[in-house]
């Protein structure tokens, strides 16, 4: 894969700073939706377990990554609150597709405040949901609460999973295969939702229930 999407390359080149920057960007910046989130955190856990490139203890890594994730969503929320309505009128470009924003809006409308937590585990939607929350003027205090819960669960959960699996001999011997599996699992919810949306469109082309 391109080096910018290769978690191990990112970590070996930029270390802890690179991890935190990617997590921050992928959590709430418009340009961050294509960055590796789940696979990066899983790889972080693997490398912490093996002492490769990263030598921080697991608890510290989880704390720092959680903070980066929460701050990223906070930035996305504030951006959406300030520029949200204009974003839905913005034309598509190489790095911006209105369909991604619309998908996050549908996700937010379907799950309400819970979407801030649930979106953490759905690539692409994870990036745009805090922006939609801000554009929808979700109460700030409520957003912060759900943001801290979701960011902590995602960052600590995926990193810790990688850490403990990184101590399994089979996983250490097949890291590339495991990472491919993580990417597939990460993308699967989006693929399923796209297929469901296509099926609904074919079944109801006029947009009626």
How is this structure best described in words?
- The protein is built from nine helices and no strands.
- By secondary structure, the protein is mostly helical.
- The chain is globular and about 50 Å long.
User: Can you give the helix content as a percent range?
Assistant: over 70%
Counting DSSP E segments of at least 2 residues, the number of strands comes to: 0
Number of domains: 1
Mean of the pLDDT scores?
Answer: 80
Kindly report how far apart the N and C termini lie. Answer: 41 Å
Please provide the ordered H/E string of secondary-structure elements.
HHHHHHHHH
Major sheet characteristics: none
- Unreliable residue stretches: none
Number of helices: 9
The radius of gyration computed from the alpha-carbon positions, rounded to a whole number of angstroms, is 18 Å
Output the structural class.
mainly alpha
Globally, the shape reads globular
Proportion of β residues?
A: under 5%
Secondary structure elements and pairings:
Elements: H1 7-28, H2 38-50, H3 58-87, H4 98-111, H5 115-118, H6 125-135, H7 140-165, H8 169-173, H9 175-203
Which descriptors would you attach to this protein?
209 residues; 9 helices; 74% helix
Summarize it.
Helix content is 74%, strand content 0%.
